[in-house]
């Protein structure tokens, strides 16, 4: 039963990210590099700049495990913004595992343009069944991908399995606050075509159960509010590229949906932040 639910969630994620409107929105609104939430130095900062800062901040948590001899697994790698920054800055090898063939195609094209083909391997697949032997990676990395999992404990077990002893896990995710009203968080779940969210407490409990050491959670939920307010602004004054890439019907849906997501963030019903831990 759990396997069926996980497979259904993987299929839903594949359909969602392969959809032309969704691909157009992420390519244009996020700049086609990243599709995760940004860390903002200024509330008017460009989404792409803030998204890049998220990668820098996350990398700082595992910088001691990154280098020319290290191998990183990026679970749910999207267009590969994080993989390219890691490979470019640390000269590490990155295996980028992602469910969407559309995103993976763009990912490979961008890697080729940047001369990073030799350092990044793009693999189409699911993080519920990672195609790698036990103890393969120095770092397992993920950004806003576990929200799409139909079996988050299994995804985390797989992350632990493929880590070397002493290897580092670091991830971000969109979450619901403990006890958040379902109606308040539903607009974001509907946009992402998922059934619901984990909470920070859930992930902390899972990391303890999997016996990770040196664990921590940095709550950055204020940046999630800024991020969705910036997306609302982007839709109010859309660029020609966004207008050309996304149907009018989909833009109308986003114009109704994204302000509701921002409102839920403002009320404290949605959470976002960075988790890290070390495999014993």
Structure description:
- This protein has 280 residues and is of the alpha/beta class.
- It has one domain: Vaccinia Virus protein VP39 (Rossmann fold), CATH 3.40.50.
- It is built from 11 helices and 7 strands.
- It has helices at 2-18, 20-29, 47-60, 81-90, 101-114, 152-162, 182-191, 200-209, 221-236, 240-245, 248-266, and strands at 71-75, 93-98, 120-124, 137-143, 163-176, 212-219, 270-279.
- Strands 3-2-1-4-5-7-6 form a 7-stranded mixed β-sheet, sandwiched between helices.
- Helix 5 (101-114) links the parallel strand 2 and strand 3.
- Helix 3 packs across helix 4 and helix 9 (221-236) packs antiparallel against helix 11.
- It is globular and about 50 Å long.
- The mean pLDDT is 95.
CATH class: Alpha Beta
Main sheet overview? 7 strands, mixed
CATH topology: Rossmann fold
Number of domains: 1
Q: Can you give the helix content as a percent range?
A: 40-55%
Radius of gyration: 18 Å
Short description:
This protein has 280 residues and is of the alpha/beta class. It is 49% helix and 20% strand.
Secondary structure elements and their pairing?
Elements: H1 2-18, H2 20-29, H3 47-60, E1 71-75, H4 81-90, E2 93-98, H5 101-114, E3 120-124, E4 137-143, H6 152-162, E5 163-176, H7 182-191, H8 200-209, E6 212-219, H9 221-236, H10 240-245, H11 248-266, E7 270-279
Helix pairs in contact: 3-4, 7-11, 9-11
């Amino acid at each position: 039963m759990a396997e069926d639910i996980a497979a259904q969630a993987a299929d839903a994620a594949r359909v969602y990210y392969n959809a032309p409107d969704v691909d157009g929105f992420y390519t244009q609104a996020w700049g086609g590099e990243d599709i995760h939430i940004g860390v903002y130095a200024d509330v008017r900062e460009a989404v792409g700049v803030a998204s890049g800062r998220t990668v820098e901040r996350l990398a700082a948590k595992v910088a001691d495990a990154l280098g020319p001899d290290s191998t990183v697994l990026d679970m749910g790698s999207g267009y590969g913004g994080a993989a390219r920054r890691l490979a470019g800055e640390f000269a590490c090898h990155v295996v980028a595992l992602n469910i969407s063939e559309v995103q993976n195609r763009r990912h490979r094209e961008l890697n080729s343009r940047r001369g990073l083909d030799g350092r990044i391997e793009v693999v189409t697949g699911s993080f519920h069944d990672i195609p790698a032997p036990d103890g393969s990676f120095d770092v397992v990395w993920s950004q806003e991908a576990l929200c799409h999992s139909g079996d988050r404990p299994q995804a985390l077990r797989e992350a632990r399995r493929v880590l070397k002893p002493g290897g580092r896990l670091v991830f971000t995710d969109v979450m619901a606050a403990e006890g958040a009203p379902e109606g308040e968080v539903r607009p974001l779940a509907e946009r992402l075509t998922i059934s619901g969210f984990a909470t920070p407490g859930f992930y902390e409990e899972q990391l303890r159960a999997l016996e990770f050491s040196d664990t921590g959670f940095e709550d950055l939920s204020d940046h999630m509010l800024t991020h969705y307010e910036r997306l609302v602004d982007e839709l109010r004054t859309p660029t020609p590229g966004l207008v050309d890439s996304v149907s009018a019907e989909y833009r109308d849906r986003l114009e109704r949906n994204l302000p509701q997501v921002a409102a839920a963030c403002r009320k404290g019903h949605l959470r976002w932040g960075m988790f890290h831990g070390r495999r014993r």
